[in-house]
Amino acid sequence: MAHIPYHDTSGSLPVREIIMPALTQVQLMERSRNQATFDSNKLTEVIFGGQVYSKDAVDRQKEAFARVEKALNTDLSKLPARYGNMNREQMMDEGMRTGSIAVNDGLDHKHSFFDQSNLQWSLANSNPFSLTGLLFTPLLRLQCSAEQLAYWLPLAESGRIIGSFAQTELGHGTFVGGLQTTATFDKETGEFVIHTPSISATKYWPGALGFAATHAIVVARMIIAGTDHGVHSFVMQIRSLEDFKPLPGIELGDIGLKMSYNDTDNGYAVFKHVRIPRKHLLMRYTTVTRDGSYSSDPLSEKLLYGGLLNGRTVIIRNCAFQLAQALTIATRYSVVRQQGEKKDHGLHQPEIMSYKLQHHRLLTLVSMAYANIFASKTISASYQQMLEQQASGRNDSLPYMHMIIAGLKAWSTQTASDGAEDARKMCGGHGYLMMSGLPEIVASCTATCTFEGENVVMWKQVSRYLMKGMAAPSLPHDMVYMASYSGPVVFPYQGDDFLRPEVLVEIFEHRSARLTHEAYEALCNEQGSRASAENTHAVALHIAARACIDLFVLQSFISSIAVTLPSTLHAVLTRLLLLYALTTISSPLSLSSATFALSSPQIASMRAQTNTVLEELLPDAIALTDAWNFTDASLSSALGCRDGDVYRRIMEWTRQLPINVHAAENGGVLKGPWEASVKPFLREGVVRSRGMSRL
Amino acid sequence: MAHIPYHDTSGSLPVREIIMPALTQVQLMERSRNQATFDSNKLTEVIFGGQVYSKDAVDRQKEAFARVEKALNTDLSKLPARYGNMNREQMMDEGMRTGSIAVNDGLDHKHSFFDQSNLQWSLANSNPFSLTGLLFTPLLRLQCSAEQLAYWLPLAESGRIIGSFAQTELGHGTFVGGLQTTATFDKETGEFVIHTPSISATKYWPGALGFAATHAIVVARMIIAGTDHGVHSFVMQIRSLEDFKPLPGIELGDIGLKMSYNDTDNGYAVFKHVRIPRKHLLMRYTTVTRDGSYSSDPLSEKLLYGGLLNGRTVIIRNCAFQLAQALTIATRYSVVRQQGEKKDHGLHQPEIMSYKLQHHRLLTLVSMAYANIFASKTISASYQQMLEQQASGRNDSLPYMHMIIAGLKAWSTQTASDGAEDARKMCGGHGYLMMSGLPEIVASCTATCTFEGENVVMWKQVSRYLMKGMAAPSLPHDMVYMASYSGPVVFPYQGDDFLRPEVLVEIFEHRSARLTHEAYEALCNEQGSRASAENTHAVALHIAARACIDLFVLQSFISSIAVTLPSTLHAVLTRLLLLYALTTISSPLSLSSATFALSSPQIASMRAQTNTVLEELLPDAIALTDAWNFTDASLSSALGCRDGDVYRRIMEWTRQLPINVHAAENGGVLKGPWEASVKPFLREGVVRSRGMSRL
């Protein structure tokens, strides 16, 4: 009973001496799940609802997944198509097929889950049809005049056109001011002429641009009568709606295989003097009259920028759940994977979850995923507030929101991509299999580190804000905690003190204040240009930026659980909060800042408290990952299915691999390579099987 | 002249105002290459020769690449096939084709470069035909009796059989003692019966096992008359050499797509009571007589283990060069990629290499790649010495070699995979393109982190050795530097002192001694079992292990360049040595160990010295990567070609993507998805292009 027999174990061979697990993988999973101290369904409501319960939101999400998974006919016993035998073109086909089902679900149901994420919880721009809702429509709302909006919005929102956003060029990424595509005003005809003046000006990377989009918002330098007015947005039709061919003068195509996102057609576009009507310039804040006179609202930049920050809040949210996915898989596999021998386990191999270095790493990451989720909820709420303020003419919270969202984008994408990769490694060799689901999650996650500019650029935005704040006559509101800083302190805390959130906040605040003050002093003492000083002290600035965001994450975690919750939920979330705070403050990066000194006994005490919290969290490991509520189909993982039946499922899927099915049809031989490569390699097959047994 | 025109820039549009780079990418590359302070060819000889010059070794390596690349017909203007449109089966076909060419080159030329690495510098086991030389043959040499060796070796070495090594099982990885496959002796017939008793006992992962190997060394538990004699090795024919079908009772297949290594058939095998002759047990150290009596040489384990360490030394070497590959690509792209604005660059966008955070990260990694190369050379030489000692009956250096190779395996695989991924991120979005070459390098590199056991297991082997050494009556020879440790010291050093290698060694030694002593004390103070104490202090043990390996790497770097070298080479290698040492000692991980305290001014001084060294190294960045001597074909990178002509090459390859070629044949439309998905999605195409311009 203890081992899983093949159909033909009828042989009478002795198995007495063989080490067998006492429980099957399914039983191990069941046992782990039953150890939980709380009801994971209730935690699901906290995660996906507001800060108070919302069973309704969870139900709607479940229904959306059920509808779409039904339409896609997913089935756990079948090898997911993506792990089979697809080439680039087939991936694209499949992406279009599944993508249209998900987006149609959104169009049919007022509030669709799939606006921001795809079925596998990748960012929705991995779906060729989703960019319309994710970026194209919001940009229209931001930049269109009322007349323009009345025309374009219904088309985009009803799915009658498919949008792309063509900003990035082959040679120009983050620095928008360096874009080279030109939009030259022709006074004769009253048209703009869109043109790609060099290879490096080719639009490259925009999602859906290759083969799915009918329209694009194209960012180009506006040139009127020889004067460069800088970059502006134009809406352009790029493909015929009759036969879908690229319109004259436009070359479109795919940019090929990427680490992930192969369901969509990140594309390129070359424009050869393509003429568009003057009114395709998005005119909310910028106007060009028929005779070519240009005017622009000086306030527009702030509003535009505020609107564009939305993309980053979506990235932050998404990363939290992609990390959660990887952790769900790794945690589930860790409670059913048995390895090595520990004396106290008798004959049986212990589950690897019981090893300190495994559960320390896993549970710390689980705490970070929760921290990320709560930070994401906090920032989304603040962002909505800011938009409302902007709508009533107040832009004063923009600089802070810009900073905190940039920093959180860097923090969450880095945490998620490093964490997902670490989770993958914690699954050993099997994590390297595509059918583990992990490589795709890691690859999709890591993309976000370079989205909207590599994270180094994001951290710079945070440190610039901090330095500007320090230089201001009085500290901005969000930096007032730094005012009380008057040099290094020695904290009086010990033992249980480190389990009090207010103590942890005090330490985080002091660290942030200290690093910021010291970086500022270093800058002030520097000769030469500000840019060169920033370059010289880049590391110190980076660490200060990071400390500021760590504090924000801690505070949002604390305030997110300071609501009425069942006591079991409150207890487990508090443990996660403590684990996040203790491991962050005693992490190498934190401790290494020579400016931040906790004493050795204090650090030892924090590590002891960490061990205690880990012990308390261990029984809840499965429930904490169950609470994220990922369907088996959305995980697409042979290692991470809910039932824990790992080995049976791996073999079931392995035998369904087309390469194996095709070989089996030919007696177990891959005909092509055998004839073309192996047979010649064996050099006339001098050795015959009979010969082999002669020995 | 400054921009690269499309063929039809005949339009008379003004480009005056457009920011244009002053130099083309090719010119930027040339300029960077010409700044070097030394001759990169001379450094190539140091890298690939012995510690003294060996132009000969470099020439032979160049010839091997030239022969194989010629046979494969590589051409920089053609999109490499792997970036096109391959499915799993086509990847396998291509792997068999290119693999046989590389291995045949080795069989035809006595000393082939491709014994250890493939054409892309992946480990040779990414080639389905290479495992024979990399693992199968060495294992035969280790475990065969003289009679067996005389029979099998000529077959394997002449390429008349293709070998695999079937150890790992679906449910059992690192812990060999837990394997479940049985080899039961049948006294009646004098045969062993090889059998897979459960799903989790399926052989899973062995290279070449799926479709390439004709034979395998199978590791199974030997059972004689109901007694389990533990795991032993058996050689088995698994496929017919006539028609290549799996032999009766054997099921073989591929395990599907992996993150990388898709050129080879990591496979699975299920055995159903397969009978093999008794003499297929490898009998050098273990004998089973015809009547079933078992005897085993108690010394065999050490010799076997010593032999198996070879695999790890190959991994260490390989990782050094895979990191070097990624850095070659990232460095080359960084000197031609222009981004952002810096005031002192006037109108032109600066190359991103000039940004501190870019060259700090890149050059630090370059120094680590060099450190890794020298450590690999040192360890390989020591390993050969150990084998010679073992051959003459001395096994006393085995425990040390086992420890240092395990630690170096963990250090180098982690350094390489994190470093390659960081290099990829430093290329921004383009590093995410498969045609950048980086995703494949990262994915192939990261596999080595879990090879032979995840690195956590490797670090444990180091810390166990250290703790055992501390507990011994006298410290082992390699730990004597720890004897003088008598508690924390305050170093008197400042400023230029930190540029003296002997000072750095002293600091590294003190750090290692201190962390080891403190971990040992912590263990000794712990109640309960040793296993539980190790679990509790896992982090402290891990950091101590790491410090010990850091010291080894430093020492091997120092001794590797303490040879007669041209002064320009010696100068640049010394700078790299200093950069490695300074950044290691002032890294977060190092500084965070509360037990290791350099004062703030000392750390500031080390950072200042680091900045100086970086400035000095900057002009040599291209030469340092050129010295690794990677051919363009071996990099397969649109970003990392030697000539720097990045944007032209990306577009050249992009236009050759089969998906684009096929669409172009159909007027720029992907026919299948247009009909099946896009057209229905657009909902009857209500909007017509004429309609669009009405606005």
Automatic annotation (TrEMBL), chains A, B:
Residue span, Acyl-CoA oxidase C-terminal domain: 501-662
Pathway this chain belongs to: Lipid metabolism; peroxisomal fatty acid beta-oxidation
Cofactor: FAD
Residue span(s) of domain Acyl-CoA oxidase C-alpha1: 305-467
Record's GO cellular component terms: peroxisome
InterPro entries, per the entry: ACOX_C_alpha1, Acyl-CoA_ox_N, Acyl-CoA_Oxase/DH_mid-dom_sf, Acyl-CoA_oxidase, Acyl-CoA_oxidase_C, AcylCo_DH-like_C, AcylCoA_DH/ox_N_sf, AcylCoA_DH/oxidase_NM_dom_sf
GO biological process, one term: lipid homeostasis
Binding site for FAD: T168, G207
Molecular function GO labels: acyl-CoA oxidase activity; FAD binding; fatty acid binding
Pfam families the record matches: ACOX (PF01756), ACOX_C_alpha1 (PF22924), Acyl-CoA_ox_N (PF14749)
Domain Acyl-coenzyme A oxidase N-terminal: 39-162
Catalytic center residues: E452 (proton acceptor)
Reaction catalysis annotation: a 2,3-saturated acyl-CoA + O2 = a (2E)-enoyl-CoA + H2O2
Keywords: FAD, Fatty acid metabolism, Flavoprotein, Lipid metabolism, Oxidoreductase, Peroxisome
Subcellular location: Peroxisome
Family: Belongs to the acyl-CoA oxidase family.
The protein's name in its UniProt record: Acyl-coenzyme A oxidase
Species: Lachnellula suecica
Designated gene of the protein: ACX1_1
